[in-house]
Amino acid sequence: MEKNLTEGSVPKRLLGFSLPYLLSYFLQTLYGMADLLIIGRSGLSFLHNIIAIGVMRVPGVYLMSQRFPDTLLPMGLATAAGSLVSVIICIIAYMCIRHSDRRSTNESYAGK
To answer: What are phi and psi of 26, to 5 degrees?
Structure first.
């Protein structure tokens, strides 16, 4: 289905384009808050962002733009894949921190 974007109400078209972006921005903000609460205390926050951007987002967007030059969708998917890498790193770090906290708690009880 092809839409003619030069016809119709400009505010309606603009709103149609802006809502997905605003939703993704809101979700990214929620992710950032969770990242701050979970990973921020361990010093891994900066590292996991560098890994996600350097390993997935930048190379992924470049490769997708070379492979599919006619559309921006694959480039957008590469950006989402970078966010997925960040989420996976956050989950792994959370599990490691939780395991470490449990171990230190058990060791402190064993010493008494």
So the answer is: -60, -45
pTM over the 0.70 mark = no
| pLDDT > 70? residue 107 | no
Give the mean pLDDT of 43-68: 78
Instruction: Give the closest residue to 82 by CA, choosing from 100, 58, 109.
Output: 58
How far apart, in whole angstroms, are the C-alpha atoms of residue 63 and residue 61?
Answer: 6
Computed on alpha carbons and rounded to an integer, the radius of gyration of the chain in Å comes to: 21
Query: Rounded CA gap, 52 and 60, in Å?
Result: 10
DSSP for residue 8: S
The answer, yes or no, to whether residue 38 has pLDDT greater than 80, is: no
